[in-house]
């Protein structure tokens, strides 16, 4: 079913794709961290549209690693954007569980099966491909995951399976969030008398 979803924003952000040169994923992160290896809380607010208290809550609960010298690196930003993508359709404790399932303890990289910046890159690529499909099925999604993660090399046996399971859930959550956002837009248009509810489209 075509829900009329358009990719106007970079996933997890409030930034217009076109104004950012139509880059997403790791290319977007490269652009953000081109000059500096770290960004401040104020910049994250501008990128993700999060208020400081929300992010502080995530830090307090261990969902995001505390910044060093008040500077966030690309993997920390990627994790924040991934959480932000799903929080409209999943409970934060479930999002945290999912990211722990992929990469273990947020405080260490030794147990990670993939850098979170690369995970974000896979997600953004899949979002682009998924929106182009008229009918989205579990088989469609599995095929997209296989296609987008073809270059992934396991750090240990079973890592690919874990990555695929997590990506399936992340994409379902984000797709649901995009549908919800589209529904919200249509309801607002109805309230403002901009569309006729008796007409299709």
The number of helical runs is 8
Based on CA inertia axes, which overall geometry fits? globular
* Structural class by helix and strand composition: mainly alpha
> What is the total tally of β strands?
0
Task: Give the helix level as a range of percent.
Answer: 40-55%
Spans of at least 5 consecutive residues with low confidence: none
Element order, helices and strands?
HHHHHHHH
Major beta-sheet overview: none
- Strand share of the residues? under 5%
Radius of gyration: 17 Å
Number of domains: 1
Distance between the termini: 13 Å
| Mean pLDDT level | 87
Provide tags for this entry.
single chain, mainly alpha, 201 residues
Describe the overall structure:
Helix content is 55%, strand content 0%. It has helices spanning 25-32, 41-48, 52-60, 74-86, 92-103, 116-131, 138-148, 159-191. Helix 1 (25-32) packs across helix 6, helix 5 runs antiparallel to helix 8 (159-191) and helix 6 (116-131) crosses helix 7 (138-148). It is globular and about 55 Å long. It is built from 8 helices and no strands. With 201 residues, the protein is an all-alpha fold. The protein has one domain (25-191). The two termini are 13 Å apart. The mean pLDDT is 87. The longest helix has 33 residues, at 159-191.
């Amino acid at each position: 079913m075509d829900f009329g979803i358009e990719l106007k924003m970079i996933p997890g952000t409030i930034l217009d794709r076109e104004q950012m040169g139509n880059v997403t994923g790791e290319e977007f992160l490269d652009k953000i961290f081109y000059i500096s290896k770290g960004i401040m809380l104020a910049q994250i607010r501008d990128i993700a549209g999060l208020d400081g208290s929300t992010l502080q809550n995530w830090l307090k609960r261990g969902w995001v690693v505390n910044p060093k010298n008040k500077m966030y690196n690309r993997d920390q930003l990627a994790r924040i954007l991934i959480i932000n993508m799903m929080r409209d359709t999943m409970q934060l404790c479930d999002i945290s569980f999912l990211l722990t399932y992929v990469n273990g303890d947020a405080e260490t990289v030794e147990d990670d099966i993939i850098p979170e910046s690369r995970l974000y890159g896979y997600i953004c690529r899949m979002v682009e491909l998924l929106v182009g499909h008229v009918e989205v099925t579990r088989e469609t999604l599995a095929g997209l995951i296989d296609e987008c993660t073809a270059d992934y090399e396991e750090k240990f046996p079973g890592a690919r399976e874990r990555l695929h399971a997590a990506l399936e859930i992340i994409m379902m959550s984000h797709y649901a969030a995009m549908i919800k956002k589209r529904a919200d837009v249509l309801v607002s248009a109805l309230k403002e008398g901009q569309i006729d509810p008796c007409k299709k489209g």
